[in-house]
Amino acid sequence: MSAAMDTESTYSGYSHYSGHSKKAHRQGRDRHKSPRSKDGSRSEKSVTIQTPPAEPLLGNDASRAEEGQDDNWGETTTAITGTSEHSISQEDIARISKDLEDSVGLDCKRYLGLTVAAVLGLLVFLTPIAFILLPQILWRDDLEPCGTVCEGLFISVAFKLLILLIGTWALFFRQPKADLPRVFVFRALLLVLIFLFVFSYWLFYGVRILDSKDTNYHGIVQYAVSLVDALLFIHYLAIVLLELRQLQPMFTAKVVRSTDGESRYYSLGHLSIQRAALVVLENYYRDFTVYNPALLTASKSRAAKHMAGLKVYNVDGPGNNASGQSRAMIAAAARRRDSSHNELYYEEADHERRVKKRRARLVVAVEEAFTHIKRLQAEEQQKAPGEMMDPREAAQAIFPSMARALQKYLRTTRQQQYHSMESILQHLSFCITNNMTPKAFLERYLNPGPTLQYDRDRWFSKQWTLVSEEAVTSGLQDGVVFVLKCLDFSLVVNVKKIPFIKLSEEFIDPKSHKFVLRLQSETSV
Asked: 74, 100, 415, 477: most buried by Cβ count inside 10 Å?
């Protein structure tokens, strides 16, 4: 397999091959593949997903080892392979298809919950109106006169229903941010409470008013007003349980990304585990730098190289006593392992030197490119001798002068997969339109930003899995640990309770601030 990889890497670095060399190369690669096809157990259980073709400017060559290249490698290398760096097994593909099927069930559950809430809300708003209109429809001739006070209650009911409608729309009818694995307990309890409350009012109304055909219409209107008042109090209770209760910080959550160890701290209130996970994910896309798997390939290759140097062979056979020689070989391998920190030090120093050098070239190239643009004022646009351009055309005009320096810098820092040529042109035209400086243009590329800064459809995880030993509907407690998993990495969340703080007061009299100058014989005053 290593021979096949060597052949593939050789193929990625060529510039011009003759027809004979291509044929010999293809025959050599077939010879290397022939023993692999015989035992073919690995090739039948895994599949490689090819990355989509990149833009002509920024090829996705993060899998190539760039440490051994000089600064002018781009002038002699013209061919780029399409080898992918992501591979998953057939079991993972089956799991992904199962997740897609489960997502259909989640959509049905979400729409079912919205339908139940909408029907219940419609019943709540129509109930007071029905209480007032049914006597007028069924036994209008037998009703007592309403009077001035009763007619004033109609205005009270109308405005209270309007306030309740606006508050319900603001609190409940909002676009959902996520599909949670379990129901929201407090919201479900509120729905059950409202249903029982309205059912009780209807039951009393049917027994005491409809059956007896009560003629006291003023009392019926007051009964409807009491229902609206109770609904307003339930809405206030919903605001306390759903919004205000979680505002006071009670816990501190440490979030660690499993791949590179990047961590953040967040303050959380009284939340369930699933809602705390939702808060963590919302802050993750804003605060954490974008996940870059290309940065981990160098450390993995270095670790594999060092592990390969720790092999010990017994050349005298298993029957001979060669313990002394084996201990000597183990000691030599240990010394080689201990010297690996020198390799890491010089490797990182060389990488930092290359990054600083290409960063300086990029800054100079961008500043020179921006000097060729001048914004025309309103009075200058009529008498401008040259050809006028819009921001898009201006960006396309100055982009070639900085493209090579930007390409080399993004490849060195392994960011080329996040920036296509179209996205760079859009950002450049945006900076030109808003009269931004070259430093403002380079801020996106010199400092890796959060995931929200990049393409949403490509770098956002569609599915997250919440793993917890406790029930996800239970509240946060001290020492709770849960994990949020996606396809490439996971977020480990450790919850700690904020300790109780006791403050004491100490009064200092302002008149007590008196000082004395102490003079000594050595003092030069």
From this structure: 415
State how far the Cα of 217 lies from the Cα of 197, in Å rounded to an integer. 22
Q: Is 301 helix (H, G, I), strand (E, B) or coil?
A: helix
66 occurs within a structural domain: no
Which residue range forms the structural domain that includes residue 430?
A: 293-303+334-447
52 within domain boundaries: no
Q: Which of 459, 448, 453 is nearest to 487 (CA)?
A: 459
Count of structural domains within the chain: 3
What parts of the chain have a pLDDT lower than 50?
1-88, 90-91, 94, 101, 104, 310, 321-322
**Cβ(402)–Cβ(365) below 8 Å:** yes
DSSP sequence for 153-221: HHHHHHHHHHHHHHHHHHHT-S------SS--HHHHHHHHHHHHHHHHHHHHHIIIIITTT---HHHHH
The tokens 């270095």 sit on which residue?
302
| Residue 216, both tokens | 């006291």
Q: Report whether 321 contacts 276 (CB < 8 A).
A: no
Position of tokens 């160098």?
Answer: 298
**252-275: string of b/e by CB count within 10 Å (b at 16+)?**
ebebebeebeeebebebbbbbbbb
Closest CA to 437 of 361, 389, 359, 375: 375
**Segment holding 491, helix H or strand E:** strand 490-497
For the beta sheet containing 263-268, the strands, ordered from the edge strand earlier in sequence to the opposite edge, are: 263-268, 251-257, 490-497, 481-485, 465-468
What is the pLDDT at residue 83? 37
Whole-structure pTM value: 0.67
> What residues have CB less than 8 Å from 296, skipping those under 6 apart?
259, 260
In a domain, 15, yes or no: no
Name the residue type at position 394: A
Distance CA 41, CA 478 (A): 48
For 505, phi then psi, to 5°, come to -110, 140
